[in-house]
C-alpha cells in the first residue's frame, strides 16, 4: 500500500546508509495503462514520488528485482529512478555444477551420481530450479525407503538412516517434476499448412 511504501522509505532514511530492496517489482509497479484498479495506479505514483525524492533522503539505495522487466511501468526505468539495469541470466554449465554441489552438500549421494553430468543436462535451469531438483531427488529417495519405515515410530531407525542414499535414478525421476525456468514460456506452434499453400514442386503435387 502507499502508506507502507512511505513507511519503508522513511525507515530507510532514518537508518541511512541503507538499501531498500523491492522483489517482484513488476507486481508492485505494473504498467499503469494495463491495470484496472485505482489502488495499483496510486501505488505506482507513490513509488515514483519516493524515487524522485531520494536525493533529499541521503544515502539510500533502492534495488528492484523482476522476472518480467517489460511489465514494469516505464516511468520507473527513466534516468534518476531505476536507470541502471543488470540482467542476470540462467547459469552456465560451470555455474550449475557449483549450485549442484551446494544443494547436495548435505545429501548422502550414491557413487553413481555424477554432478558434472547433471550440470550438462540441466540447461535452462535457474538456481531455484536446481534447488527444487535436489529436493525432488531427495523425496524420491525417501519414498524408496518408506516400505522399511514404520510410520508410527517417532524416529527413523539408525540402520535405515545409515544406508539411505540419493542415487542417479532419483535425480532422473526428479527431472519429471521440475520444469526449467528458461523453458516455461517456450511453446512450439505447429502451423496449419495445406497443399495449395506449397509453392513449386508441381510434380510432387500432381503425384499426390
From TrEMBL:
Domain AAA ATPase AAA+ lid: 112-153
One Gene Ontology term of the molecular function aspect: ATP hydrolysis activity
Record-annotated ATPase AAA-type core domain positions: 1-89
One Pfam short name: AAA
Identification of the protein by name: ATPase AAA-type core domain-containing protein
Organism lineage: unclassified sequences, metagenomes, ecological metagenomes
Amino acid at each position: 500500500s502507499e502508506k507502507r511504501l512511505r513507511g519503508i522509505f522513511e525507515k530507510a532514511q532514518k537508518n541511512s546508509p541503507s538499501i531498500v530492496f523491492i522483489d517482484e517489482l513488476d507486481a508492485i509497479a505494473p504498467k499503469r495503462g494495463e491495470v484496472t484498479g485505482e489502488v495499483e495506479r496510486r501505488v505506482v505514483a507513490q513509488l515514483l514520488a519516493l524515487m524522485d525524492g531520494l536525493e533529499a533522503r541521503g544515502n539510500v539505495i533502492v534495488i528492484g528485482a523482476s522476472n518480467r522487466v517489460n511489465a514494469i511501468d516505464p516511468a520507473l526505468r527513466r534516468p534518476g529512478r531505476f536507470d541502471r539495469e543488470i540482467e542476470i541470466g540462467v547459469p552456465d554449465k560451470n555455474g550449475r555444477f557449483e549450485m549442484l554441489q551446494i544443494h547436495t552438500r548435505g545429501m548422502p549421494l550414491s557413487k553413481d551420481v555424477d554432478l558434472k553430468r547433471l550440470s550438462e543436462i540441466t540447461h535452462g535451469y535457474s538456481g531455484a530450479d536446481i534447488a527444487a531438483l535436489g529436493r525432488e531427488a531427495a523425496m524420491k529417495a525417501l519414498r524408496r525407503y518408506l516400505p522399511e519405515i514404520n510410520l508410527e515410530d517417532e524416529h527413523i531407525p539408525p540402520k535405515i538412516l545409515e544406508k539411505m542414499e540419493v542415487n542417479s535414478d532419483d535425480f532422473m525421476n526428479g527431472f519429471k517434476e521440475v520444469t526449467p525456468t528458461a523453458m516455461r514460456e517456450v511453446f512450439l506452434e505447429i502451423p496449419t499448412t495445406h497443399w495449395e499453400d506449397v509453392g513449386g514442386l508441381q510434380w510432387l503435387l500432381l503425384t499426390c
